[in-house]
Amino acid sequence: MSSRWVADIYEIPDHVPVVGRAVFADHDWESEVLDVAFDSVLDDPDGLSNQVRRLDFTSDDCAVVVEVHGRRRLSVGLTVTPHGSGDVEAWIVDGDGRRRIDRVLHRCAVAVRPGLTSFVVRWPEGEHRPVRTSWVML
After folding, report:
1. Could you count the other beta carbons within 10 Å of the beta carbon of residue 7?
2. In the chain, pLDDT over 90 holds for what percent of residues?
3. Alpha carbon of 128 to those of 40, 90, 124: distances in Å?
4. How far from the centroid of its chain's Cα atoms is residue 18's Cα?
5. What are phi and psi of 119, to 5 degrees?
6. CB pairs under 8 A, 24+ apart, for 95-100?
7. Are residues 108 and 76 in contact, defined by beta-carbon separation less than 8 angstroms?
8. 131-133 and 32-39: which strand pairing?
9. Confidence (pTM)
10. By C-alpha distance, which of 127, 13, 137, 131 is closest to 62?
11. Residues 20-45: pLDDT tens digits?
């Protein structure tokens, strides 16, 4: 085994500590986490060449569809099911580990910064349990 190969295995990519800190700092325990069911970058043969990245997050009774426009300057549109008057927040951790929470409106494109991102949906008066998308890099 060459020493270069061993060094490559044990080298930690720069984004790994950022991801670890973001997950550890996430204390929103009452929210249900929605898994990625579809990511057009990974699941669509033309995903990297498309102008819009689509992410579908689902659970048994809730779905969040995220459409990301742009490459460096991002705008995000969300569709949430079940429909209602829920508030949506975008939790973003950039490459330097800075956290930011932005308000996002349903079905409207809103500018967000690139980074490790999770969307949180909260409905008023306990209509539904809050949900959070799993963390993805935008």
Report:
1. 9
2. 9
3. 28, 19, 8
4. 14
5. -105, 135
6. 95/14, 95/15, 95/18, 97/17, 97/18, 97/21, 97/22, 99/22, 99/25
7. no
8. parallel
9. 0.72
10. 131
11. 665 555 556 678 889 899 998 888 77
User: Taking the C-alpha atoms of 62, 79, 134 and 89 in order, what is their torsion angle to the nearest 10 degrees?
Assistant: -110
d(CA 28, CA 79): 21
Q: Which two tokens stand for residue 14?
A: 């720069």
Tell me which amino acid residue 90 is.
A
Q: E strands along the chain, which residues?
A: 32-39, 52-58, 63-69, 74-81, 87-93, 99-104, 110-112, 116-122, 131-133, 136-137
What is the token pair recorded at 21? 């800190």
Q: Closest by alpha carbon to 25, among 81, 94, 93?
A: 93
CA angle 99, 113, 38 (to 5 degrees): 100
Q: Where are the domains of the chain?
A: 14-137
Cβ–Cβ contacts within 10 Å for residue 74, how many? 19
Count of C-beta atoms within a 10 Å radius of residue 71: 9
> What is the predicted pLDDT for the residue at 38?
92
